[in-house]
Amino acid sequence: MARAPNAPQQADRIAAPAISREDVPVRVYNFSAGPAQMPLPVLERAASELTDWAGSGMSVMEVSHRGKDFVACAADAEAALRRILAIPEGYRVLFLQGGASAQFAAIPMNLTASGETVAYLNTGQWSAKAIAEARAQEVEVVVAADEADSAYTTTPAPGSYEVPAEARYLHYTPNETIGGVEFPEIPQSHAPLVADFSSSILSRPLDVSRFGLIYAGAQKNMGPSGLAVVIVREDLLGRARPSTPSVLDYARMAKADSMLNTPPTFAVYLLGLITHWIEESGGLEAMGQRNQAKAALLYQAIDGSDFYANPVQERSRSWMNVPFTLADPSLDSEFLAGAQAAGLTNLKGHRSVGGMRASIYNAMPIEGVRALVDYMTEFERTKA
């Protein structure tokens, strides 16, 4: 292939240090809450196509988002997502920017008129942020259940709260990333159910028909940060307030196939690779079995020790984010340093909670959890 007209001559290129195989680090077990570890086969596929995608001689990041090749790529990602989630007819799938946080404001903008009532369940920092954004959108926010008194270590029991008859929707966060709290059931609601699935999307089968709207940031189980996926029932479209920005208007974005503006093309491409990886790995049924086994292994290690503790109510424990503390907090720094040296990274708990947190999303293999448990056992043996 001919050199591009403006490509620099070899002598003009910025010199890069030579790297031998010995200098290449071994991949670690990355327990980050997000951006999170991604499946190695997906990264290797993306690396192999980085400079020549689909025979184009360009990266997928360089092709036109309106060209037929990328339009087909986006359609394939949506089709695979629909298959693995078994999304019913009558729902639209949107690929949006701004992460899940942009949807905190977009949801009331699209589903309510000024002054109407909405209901929220508050189980942690992310639902609290969604509540704050909703209040800024001139709606009457009813917090039907508030778990702040438990320091966000619980979820409300079914039947323990009421959703106002006039509520336009009920919003909840199925999995709170920071506190490691997860709803063990889907709440009942006469109003359309709206849910922030950022930390648990694609981790197990899900009955999408129970929801009016599902949204999720991609950076846990669906790819890199920046992309948000919204799955919205069609009868909820077309209600946006006139003041809603066009890129946050679900109906306008649906009509434009999420390409009203330039979409996050690389993130959409990676979402497609990840959905195919899930299909090839047995689908969401198999993914759920693996995730349940990983969580059970880690909780068993914590519960079987007097040295470690998990603060979350047992029925409300997350499969995806497992916080734990040491009996002696003065050992936290030493624990984290030793873990880092052992190739177990990003285990420090959120600054608002402290302690440790292991995020074990889809891409974390059970071998990584076993390595963490082995390290925890040895650390306890030498420090207890």
TrEMBL record:
Keywords noted in UniProt: Amino-acid biosynthesis, Aminotransferase, Cytoplasm, Pyridoxal phosphate, Pyridoxine biosynthesis, Serine biosynthesis, Transferase
Catalytic activity as recorded in UniProt: 4-(phosphooxy)-L-threonine + 2-oxoglutarate = (R)-3-hydroxy-2-oxo-4-phosphooxybutanoate + L-glutamate; O-phospho-L-serine + 2-oxoglutarate = 3-phosphooxypyruvate + L-glutamate
Chain residues that bind pyridoxal 5'-phosphate: 100-101, 126, 177, 196, 219, 261-262
EC number(s) on file: 2.6.1.52
Cofactor binding, per record: Binds 1 pyridoxal phosphate per subunit.
Family indicated by similarity: Belongs to the class-V pyridoxal-phosphate-dependent aminotransferase family. SerC subfamily.
UniProt protein name: Phosphoserine aminotransferase
Protein species of origin: Actinomyces slackii
